[in-house]
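Q: I have 188 residues here and want to know how they pack in 3D. Can you give me a structure?
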Amino acid sequence: MTVPLSLSVPESLTFEQAISLTQSLLDQIEGGALSEEEIESVLTQLVSSENGARGFFVTYLTDSRPLADRPSVGVINALRTSPEIVSELLVKNVAMSAAMVVAHRRRQDEEMAANSARTSTRSAGLIAMLELPRTHELAQQMLESVTAGEGVYEAFLKRWGYDAEQRLAIQQAVQPVLSESGENKSLA
């Protein structure tokens, strides 16, 4: 298996390089230029670092093409190789994009609100497909922080300045993630 040189992942990858690499990866996936094994190989390298995974998700989840709505086997297998990094970023993506829907609607920007809603839905969809136990632990912690105003994610929520309406949107986005997994029977 030879991965195209344009998709080689540098050892010390920057966030910006990861975005660019992901854009190239998505173009080649869309064009049918890569096998599932090649996709899995490149993406496994990409999500093995925080910068790589962040760059991948910011590009993949917001891309206008439907690729993220139907992740391939190669994408799913690769994401499962870095459960800690992937879990953390997916839970935060569900939360942040749900909160941004509220912010965009306040500015009467329905197009951006729809894009944020799509990102939240795609993130939740990946969580369901990946079935990573760590993701559900982190989602439970996010739910606890957003409802109790304390806990593991409280500093994260405060750093972004989420108000009561945004916290409610986060709660409403995170609850189904837990309910679908059967891990949050008290809220089901």
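Q: Anything worth noting?
A: Confidence is low (pLDDT under 50) at residues 183-188. Residues 145 and 151 are 5 Å apart (CA to CA).
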